[in-house]
Amino acid sequence: MRGDKTSDEVLATAMDIAKQINKVPVLSRVCYGFIGNRMLRPYAREAQLCLIEGATPEQIDRVMENWGMAMGPMAVADLAGIDIGYKARQGLSDEEKGNPKSYCIADRLVAMGRLGQKTGAGYYQYDPTSRARSSDETILRVIEEEATKQGVVRREISDDEILDRLTLALINEGFNILEEGIAQRSSDIDVVYIFGYGFPAYRGGPMAFAENQGLKKVYARMCQFGEQFGQQNWTPSALLKTLVTDNKSLTQWEKEQA
Question: I need a labelling partner for 197 at 20 to 30 A (CA). Which of 47, 71, 209, 237 fits?
Fold first, then answer.
């Protein structure tokens, strides 16, 4: 992490040490969550919103794992501990926490003592010996109860919608990070997600995936979600909008910035 007073010598030394212990180092400037965890927040937000709006943990994880993610977001939450995100939220204002629909289910599970694998139950039940996960009717009741409290009428959500909402949330935040100079280049963001967050390497990382899909297509889908779900969560990055307007690729823009 490059702070305001971090010297080039310190950064070079840190990079060298990382390579010596067979790690893949990426330089980041300072912001809440840096690169990886900052992008993880909107990804997790959309997973939670899909959950309360009509999906199940199994559907969400199946969609993302079939697409290539090492683990789906609900399984990741159970592995890390649902209380980790809960405790992190306690340091945020209500505005920073966002829409309660995006965390009320997780908060309810923490209150129930369902913290994930370490307690034997979270979004799934876990075998005490093998840790194999299985579906749990309890979580479905919790989801439905929280949806009722939040005034959400649950509906059938397609696999395609789940995939697009989660991946585009990642991509949009990636563009924000790039625009702000938190990451030096888009490939650094891709390296973080491939090596640190289980993103499928053959898809190239979130930013490469967006480039390969076509930025106009990516932008249009985000705008569609903005109309459907509101601009609060779906305002396209200014950088993405500029690239689409100017008919430029991310690669072209980065060459111009060099």
Answer: 237
List where CATH 1.10.1040.10 sits in the chain.
36-149, 159-257
pLDDT digits (tens, 9 = 90+) for 86-116: 999 998 899 999 999 999 999 999 999 999 9
**CATH number of the structural domain 159-257:** 1.10.1040.10
Task: Give this prediction's pTM.
Answer: 0.96
Quote the CA–CA distance of 94 and 73 in Å, as a whole number.
23
What band does 204 get if pLDDT is binned at 50, 70 and 90?
A: very high
Task: Tell the residue number behind the tokens 């965390």, with chain if given.
Answer: 103
Considering the domain delimited by 36-149, tell me its CATH architecture.
Orthogonal Bundle (1.10)
Give the count of beta carbons closer than 10 Å to the beta carbon of residue 219.
Answer: 21
Q: How confident is the model at residue 256 (pLDDT cuts 50, 70, 90)?
A: very high
Helix (H) / strand (E) containing 216: helix 215-229
Residues 43-57 have pLDDT tens digits of 999 999 999 999 999
Helix residue ranges per DSSP H, 68-113: 73-80, 82-89, 94-97, 104-111
